[in-house]
Amino acid sequence: MSPAAEPVPDKPTRREQILAAAAELFARHGFHGVGIDDIGSAVGISGPALYRHFRSKDAMLGEMLTAISEVLLDGGQTRVDSARGPHDTLGDLVRFHVDFALDNPALITVQERNLGNLTDPDRRKVRALQRRYVEIWVEVIRAAVPTTEEPTARAAAHAVFGLINSTPHSRHLDRAQMADLLTGMALTALTHAPL
Predict the structure, then answer these.
(1) 153-164 pLDDT tens trace
(2) 80 in Cβ contact with 140 (< 8 Å)
(3) Where are the transmembrane segments (predicted)?
């Protein structure tokens, strides 16, 4: 009997490679500290060749932050849709956000630092997606801790995002230990704090 073939992950498209390289560079040097030539060099093409994939560096950032917000919103909604109960849903939501932050530290850093560098249309789109993601958290927190008022649940969600999103700046534990620590801290804060 032969072993089952492992699925081979799809090779990233050139566009995905460019966005990943740009995220790393933006996280390390800031949006304004990175030029088109830097991004092109990181993926092995000339800076001007990037214009075949993106109309500008601003367009790259807009697509990057919109995609992050869509992934978070879709992932959050998936956890709610497969809900098994309020406390399980809260745990699933926390674990999802922790995993995203730990697996995408450059994207988290870019998201935290560069919202102000978006064009107005991109900023409005990203903000709308982020508000919808926060609303998912507010509803889940209020279901898990029914005495929580809406403004308190909203503040708690943002506080937990701050805790989890600080992970790109900490390398004291391995990935699994950090995931357990952040998940435990977030769940304790949300379910045992005086909400």
Answers:
(1) 999 999 999 999
(2) yes
(3) none
